[in-house]
Amino acid sequence: MLSTKPYPQTSHHHNQKQVPRILLIYTGGTIGMIENPASGALEPFDFPRFRSYVPELQGFHLDIDAFAFDTPIDSSDMEPRYWVEMAHVIATHYNDYDGFVMLHGTDTMAYTASALSFMLQNLGKPVIITGSQLPIGQLRTDGKENLLTSIEIAAATNEKGQPIVTEVCIFFENRLLRGNRTTKINAEGFNAFRSYNYPPLATAGIHIKYEEHLIKRPQPTAPFTPHYLLNTGVMILTLFPGIGPEVVDACFNVKGLRAVILKTFGAGNAPQKPWLMQRIERLIDNGIIVVNVTQCSKGAVEMNRYETGLHLLQAGVVPGYDSTIESVITKLMFLLGHDYPTDKIIRLMNTNIAGEITA
């Protein structure tokens, strides 16, 4: 699936002062689609041609290598097995590069960023995921700005020479956001992503202004540890007024089900129907984890605020706090993939393990 070797380097500055090395990883997506001048059709990434569209890359005093997935993945076809491959690419090249910039389609970018934030444990280098709403070769593309700033962020160091950013982030339209806090909110505009419950880690204006106190730091004593196990036995049930037992039964009786995410109203409230509570209790008795997240974009689940949420808490439903749906689903896949006992998974769902919740 993956190319066996990176494309050749763009530049070789082997002077006394070590030049930062950046690995550009192309997984797919609009940003790398290049128009065939003859047919006008969009064709997948080819780094030498891609570079000709972004001559500004030569202006960086950096060594930039590129690595492309053999077959570009449309982001709506994104699957956990590709996250495993991405984690492998980063782990394999972890010691050879100072930072990583991943080009990805926007539709599932927030899922990928969330998944990688859990899979790349104790990350000590920047992994910046970016893309664009228009292909890089088009005049009005947002891809150039996103790419160039992402590379600059991936190479940025503090006065001690350490990387400023040490987490998986999305950079899009002037904002650097924590990956597992992001959601795609716009299919049209260039400002495609939001992080409703956590502030931006950096803002790119004339200068890139970093909010260093917000950036997650690795434990200095622990090593960087990649993880490759994911279990997809999860599902999402969105509650709505008038939801009936047939719908809930169809969802709860899925084969191989290990966890259910309930998308509830407001601060985590569900209809007080005895049949619904009985079914949720039965699910939990059978060892299936049930997590409560709100349908609202902003804010958190607080199940002890109203009686309608308290019932869920008493039944053993796990609060999702102020998590995004992308983060809850990938965190569950990650924890289930490790085959931890149910009580340990519940404990870790209640723990902030990668900056994903304000617990």
Structure overview:
The protein is of the alpha/beta class. It folds into two domains: 21-226, Rossmann fold (3-Layer(aba) Sandwich); 234-349, Rossmann fold (3-Layer(aba) Sandwich), CATH 3.40.50. Helices cover 26% and strands 19% of the residues. It is built from nine helices and 18 strands. The protein has helices spanning 47-53, 80-92, 109-119, 143-155, 245-252, 274-285, 307-315, 325-337, 342-349, and strands at residues 21-26, 34-35, 42-43, 63-68, 99-103, 120-121, 127-130, 168-172, 175-178, 183-184, 193-194, 202-204, 208-210, 225-226, 234-238, 259-264, 289-294, 318-319. The strands form five sheets. An eight-stranded mixed β-sheet has the order 4-1-5-7-8-9-12-13, with helices on both faces. It has a four-stranded parallel β-sheet with strand order 15-16-17-18, sandwiched between helices. Strands 2-3 form a two-stranded antiparallel sheet. β17 (289-294), α7 (307-315) and β18 form a beta-alpha-beta unit. α5 (245-252) packs parallel to α6 (274-285). The protein is globular. The model is unreliable at 1-5 and 8-16 (pLDDT under 50).
CATH superfamily of the largest domain: L-asparaginase, N-terminal domain
Low-confidence stretches: 1-5, 8-16
User: What is the multimeric organization of the chains shown?
Assistant: single chain
* Number of spatially distinct domains: 2
CATH classification class of the largest domain: Alpha Beta
CATH architecture of the largest domain: 3-Layer(aba) Sandwich
Strand content: 15-25%
Tell me the distance between the termini.
39 Å
Mean pLDDT: 92
For the secondary structure, the number of strands is: 18
Give the helix level as a range of percent. Answer: 25-40%
State the major sheet: 8 strands, mixed
CATH topology name of the largest domain, in short, is Rossmann fold
Biggest sheet, spatial arrangement of strands: 4-1-5-7-8-9-12-13
